[in-house]
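User: quick one, sequence for these tokens?
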């Protein structure tokens, strides 16, 4: 991290969300087992997976559903609807002790984020909750929002993460939601999130195809290489793979420890660069190793808190 990014991340105290498992808020049989799936976060959905006629009942069940799905140690977010009238009712039902964040769909711009921040702040105050408790996951789904991503991510200290809703973004952008067509937008989103000090979430490929687990794993591994910190899961079987691939792997940790040990020795000898396994190691490689080890510490701390 640059100094400014490190300061932002520290101020925001970003959570560990490698995997975020979607669970329709209106389907009890999915809610019943969600806490056993091992996801870092559960995304209770009030939006696309809930029919219009069931949204009111789903909204009324959020607090009890959140209390149930978090018993395995996962954070809980609620994906809310647009238009604003539905969004406000969703948020009023979701700001509670059992909910850690709101996934805001179809973000318009920075003022949209600030408006919802104001609403959430009022609700936290009225309900005796710690101010700032409720984090935001921002979903970029229109070309207009895409052009303002960095400002959107900086619009509120509640913002913890950002992603691109591929299907809606492609629809609104007038192109097919193929991996190739979405590659550039997703790369730009990653950089915008990094510039704002928040987590970029998502995949380079599609999350919908879980017919071939090895193919899915390869896609997730490639996605991490592009810079994503975590991603949503639409099937419980995806969770373990996403956790493994978006967390440091044993071979990476072993190599990172060797890099740091060699760097410490080189520094003691007055050198800033050195060779390891026939490769030149300098400051960016050392810093990457430090970040990897720091991420593993946070993953382990999360796992310990769940036990």
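Assistant:
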């Amino acid at each position: 991290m640059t100094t400014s990014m490190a300061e932002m991340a520290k101020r925001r105290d970003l959570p560990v969300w490698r995997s975020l498992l979607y669970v329709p808020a209106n389907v009890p049989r999915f809610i019943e087992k969600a806490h056993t799936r091992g996801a870092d976060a559960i995304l209770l959905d009030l939006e696309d997976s809930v029919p219009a006629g069931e949204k009111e009942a789903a909204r009324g069940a959020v607090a009890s559903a959140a209390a149930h799905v978090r018993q395995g140690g996962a954070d809980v977010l609620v994906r809310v609807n647009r238009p604003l009238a539905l969004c406000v009712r969703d948020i009023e039902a979701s700001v509670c002790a059992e909910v850690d964040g709101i996934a805001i769909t179809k973000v318009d711009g920075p003022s949209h984020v600030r408006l919802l921040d104001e609403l959430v702040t009022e609700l936290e105050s009225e309900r005796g909750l710690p101010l700032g408790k409720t984090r935001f996951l921002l979903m970029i789904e229109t070309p207009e929002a895409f052009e303002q991503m960095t400002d959107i991510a900086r619009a509120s200290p509640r913002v913890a993460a950002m992603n691109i809703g591929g299907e809606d973004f492609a629809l609104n952008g007038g192109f097919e939601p193929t991996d190739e067509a979405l590659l550039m937008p997703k790369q730009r989103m990653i950089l915008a999130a990094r510039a704002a000090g928040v987590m970029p979430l998502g995949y380079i490929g599609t999350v919908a195809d879980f017919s071939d687990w090895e193919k899915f794993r390869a896609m997730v591994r490639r996605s991490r290489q592009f810079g994503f910190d975590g991603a949503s899961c639409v099937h419980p079987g995806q969770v373990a793979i996403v956790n493994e691939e978006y967390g440091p792997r044993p071979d990476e940790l072993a190599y990172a420890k060797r890099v740091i040990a060699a760097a410490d020795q080189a520094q003691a000898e007055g050198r800033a660069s050195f060779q390891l396994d026939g490769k030149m190691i300098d400051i960016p490689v050392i810093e990457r190793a430090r970040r990897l080890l720091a991420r593993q510490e946070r993953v382990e701390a999360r796992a310990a808190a769940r036990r």
